[in-house]
Amino acid sequence: MASRLDRKLVVDTALRLLNEVGLDGLTLRRIAKELNVQAPALYWHFKNKQALLDEMATEMLRRMIADGPDGPGDAAKAEALGMSWQDMVTGVCSALRRELLGYRDGAKVFSGTRMTDDSAAQPLEIFLGRFVDAGFTPDDAVRCWWTAYNFTIGQVIEEQSVYPVPGAPEQRSAAVRDPAYDLTDRERRLGADYPLAARAGRELFDEMDRGFEAGLRVIVAGIEATMAPRKATAPRREAGAEPPRRAAASGRPTASGTG
């Protein structure tokens, strides 16, 4: 029997078991068996599985923040280096994806949960501050970051359905792909009647690194086109060209809604 059963021990055990059995197989009974205690003993610390998932997600975030200079939580370094908001979105989302892929069903655990402490506040403050420093309104900053974040979470959920074994993207191969995603069989079934849908399988379920990077570029470009302050996206003029005329002040809001 565990000598001292506390929340941290339960969560650490749950995260380790997650990689073995996945989210569906992770039950309080299974965790209790691993700890050599009776399941009711866990209810002193977590009233139900959702409460445990909330703490697991929070611990995952704590680990990300502590990961060092390449971790998604190291926003302070990004601020010190004067990283652009574009590079911040790309870098932080890429690092978040890599961290979540390290846990089986990591994105499902991380999404839709409530943080049990304020670990997320400091990095979020710095992320939003990077946008605001670039001229975005606070509300637009939130929307920009939230869009990129949700794209990343959704991407990883899809990836982990295809490649359930946890690990870095570069370590994956067709051998660890879920057999349900047999791309050759898919192309054979769909090719004659639905050639475009058949061809899409390789891009959707095989080229996931490329798809993620392309998706981030689309998001950054969309933010630049629709929400970024004009001074941040003004077209470069050729030498000697006349500057564009400024519109008379009308009191109308600008593209960023700042007025």
Description:
- InterPro entries: DNA-bd_HTH_TetR-type_CS (IPR023772), Homeodomain-like_sf (IPR009057), HTH-type_TetR-like_transc_reg (IPR050109), HTH_TetR (IPR001647), Repressor_TetR_C (IPR004111), Tet_transcr_reg_TetR-rel_C_sf (IPR036271).
- Residues 27-46 bind DNA.
- This protein has helices at residues 7-25, 28-35, 49-65, 75-80, 85-101, 106-110, 121-133, 138-162, 183-190, 195-205, 208-226, 230-233.
- The chain contains twelve helices and no strands.
- The protein is mostly helical and 259 residues long.
- The longest helix is centred in the middle third of the chain and has 25 residues, at 138-162.
List its traits:
259 residues; transcription; disordered C terminus; HTH-type_TetR-like_transc_reg; mainly alpha; single chain; DNA-binding
In a few lines, what is going on in this structure?
With 259 residues, this protein is mostly helical. Helices cover 59% and strands 0% of the residues.
Give a count of the beta strands, DSSP E runs of length 2 or more: 0
Task: List the uncertain runs.
Answer: 232-259
Count of helical stretches: 12
Q: Measure the end-to-end span.
A: 64 Å
